[in-house]
UniProtKB/TrEMBL annotation:
Belongs to the carbohydrate kinase PfkB family. Signal peptide: none annotated. This is Carbohydrate kinase PfkB domain-containing protein. It comes from Quercus lobata. InterPro entries: Carboh/pur_kinase_PfkB_CS, PfkB_Carbo_kinase, PfkB_dom, Ribokinase-like. It comes from the Eukaryota. One of its GO terms (molecular function) is kinase activity. Keywords: Kinase, Transferase. The keyword Cell membrane does not apply. PROSITE patterns: PFKB_KINASES_2.
Length: 357
């Protein structure tokens, strides 16, 4: 399941693979916001905020409109992947159910040759959004990374002639044979129906997110329900990506899987309360890092020898850790980030009013 628990992802750093994209938010046919998008963007915001070292492989065209912490590969003959997210006021949806997503333009895929084969990474994250990750790319990732986490949308998304996103069964995706070499597969509850969770959990750990209901973790011999954090949902875009960023941050810091999932739930809740790419308060981030470090010390002191099975069991103090992370959210808001993103977009309050039904 986890290929090498003796190798520390924190020591080696990580590899984040997925294209940046341009997101255009459209309410009832009217453009109400434009922002940086893509799983790599949301996860970078979390990893940078909580000080996790990583390298990024992402492709854009010369039309790329944003300045980011880590420069993507610019393809002169291509255009940046562009998505139009259509929201409709007459649909009372929850999560992504009220959104029709269309890929308008697509950048070049990320090939296996684009990855640094001379280096080894503690963890890898395959987080494609526009079909840019191919089976051979994921295969190269599992060769050079000790632990690989995959967002299922990178595997099962296909696109109609007009660019509308559709999903296919995981077995038909071309990636199914690689699952025994993957550590964690993350899916939303809407995406989870495109795989047999009971079958896949025998090959790798499966994490299914349920929005405001938290998440469930499934592994070969058991499953756990992980509590959510309350949030005033404004925009669900990127919540799953931020969850995955928080989840891997917890693993990198040495937390058992249930505690790492709490960190994921926390960042998911922080993201849905903002429009587009989240900006995290620096004091909140420091408080979270302090609590994570304290929790790590508690766990390692209680369990000097950690095996795979132990890491999937809720350890003593799990509920107290949830309460400590929840308390961190009440820090007064003072928006700042270690990484300043240059994001030309509509005024946040105007966008918020337009997005909300």
């Amino acid at each position: 399941m986890v290929r090498d628990q003796n190798t520390s992802p924190q020591r080696l750093g990580g590899l984040l693979v997925g294209n940046y994209c341009h997101d255009v938010l459209i309410r009832d046919g009217v453009v109400v916001g434009e922002t940086l998008g893509g799983g790599a963007a949301f996860i970078s915001a979390v990893l940078d905020g909580i000080s996790i070292p990583y390298s990024l492989v992402s492709k854009v065209g010369p039309d790329f409109a944003y300045t980011t912490c880590r420069s993507p590969i610019v393809i002169p003959t291509s255009r940046t992947t562009l998505f139009h997210a259509h929201f409709h006021s007459d649909i009372d949806g929850n999560g992504n159910d009220d959104r029709v997503l269309k890929r308008v333009t697509v950048c070049d895929p990320i090939g296996a040759s684009d990855l640094d084969t001379e280096s080894k990474f503690g963890f890898g994250m395959a987080v494609g959004v526009g079909g840019e990750i191919k089976p051979e790319t994921l295969e190269r990732m599992v060769d050079i990374c000790d632990l690989v986490l995959v967002d299922i949308q990178a595997l099962i998304r296909e696109f109609d002639e007009d660019g509308t996103v559709k999903l296919v069964g995981l077995k038909e995706s071309g990636f199914f044979h690689l699952l025994p070499r993957v550590g964690f597969l993350k899916a939303s509850e809407e995406e989870a129906v495109y795989m047999d969770v009971e079958e896949v959990r025998k090959m790798c750990c499966v994490v299914v997110t349920h929005g405001k209901e938290g998440c469930n973790v499934y592994w070969k011999d058991g499953e756990l329900e992980i509590k959510p954090f309350e949030a005033n949902q404004v925009d669900p875009t990127g919540a799953g990506d931020s969850f995955l960023g928080g989840f891997v941050a917890g693993l990198v810091h040495g937390l058992p899987v249930p505690d790492a999932a709490l960190v994921g739930n926390l960042f998911g809740s922080l993201t849905v309360a903002q429009i587009g790419l989240p900006m995290f308060d620096s004091r909140l981030l420091q408080r979270v890092k302090d609590e994570v470090q304290r929790r790590k010390m508690q766990f390692t002191t209680s369990h000097e020898i950690q095996d795979d099975e132990l890491r999937f069991v809720k350890p003593a103090g799990h509920e107290q850790f949830h309460a400590s992370l929840d308390a961190a959210k009440v820090i007064p808001t003072c928006i700042s980030q270690e990484c300043q993103w240059d994001l030309p977009s509509s005024p946040p309050r105007a966008v918020e009013k337009a997005i909300l039904n």
